[in-house]
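2024-03-11 09:14:02 DEBUG pipeline.ingest accepted 1 chain
2024-03-11 09:14:02 DEBUG pipeline.ingest length=339
2024-03-11 09:14:03 DEBUG pipeline.predict start
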Amino acid sequence: MKILVSKSAPSPSIVYNTYWEFAAKRQDVFYKKIENITPWSNDKIISLHKFTNTYRAADRVSQYLINDVIYSKKFPIKDELFRILLFKTFNKITTWEKLELELGEITYNSFNFDLYNQILTDISSSGQSIYSGAYIMTSGKSRFGHQRKHKNHLLLIEHMIKDGLAKKVKSLSSLAQLFNLLKSYPTIGNFLAYQYSIDINYGNYCNFDEMDFVVPGPGALDGITKCFSNLGDYNYTDIIKYVTERQDFEFDRLGIQFKNLWGRKLHLIDCQNLFCEVDKYSRVAHPDIKGISDRTRIKQKYKPTQKKIDYSFPPKWGINSNLENYYKKLSATTNAIEY
């Protein structure tokens, strides 16, 4: 990726330094949790509120997608795409596990709309949410006609697979092309198309460079607006590329020892997400700095979970061997202390 050249560089605000400080603090929490070091953070805002990981792929839901949905076994491309789209549409581990419990192994060939609809309806009727609160899914009623949006979403996924999505995906050569393909389907806008693109790219049948393409989401736009008092000649997409390219320089400038993801630097998707998280963080840390939406509170409080994550990443990233060595050293250190 070439360094951007602009007549007028962006002007950082006070929140810009906070962006890098937050990235490092949240990454420290990630490692401290694995190493069982407490307290995880001395930052009161991070301790009290829920923030996603510095690396998107390290989040609990992304880890479940990678390890339990995509790489639990090698699926044909049609089944892999179906599984990814189904899981990410609801984006909720408990919903997927309930479907698996009732249906067994989830594949497109065994898809039955009435059966899936009944299971999801039963979950919803019991008072449980079948959707994650991470982002809002459009109902799809205008396109597929049902009052219950999960019915429309099931029909959308079925439509995409029947439309030859698998064959189309295999013909693509970039993340941008995948994004445009997904965006061409009903009810899928920019944000969702980009998220789905990243998720599909984790899998076996795409290996597009995450550093070639990014789409800023609504939260990222807020974060960028807070981090820069003036964008100069840069647009929002340029800004994400700008900070991604400057990560080593900025960490060095601030004297931050950033511990990356077992050799993987921050990619565009991670820096895009960080803008969203810094938007939330700065509502408390910098309440006088306003974004586009002018939100003033962080809604979600941090709630610890006891379920351990066995981290693993797409094999094509080439970092799982580093991760294995890390676990071995950690285990040896723990055993030595216990002895």
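2024-03-11 09:14:41 DEBUG pipeline.report Residues 75-201 form one domain.
2024-03-11 09:14:41 DEBUG pipeline.predict end
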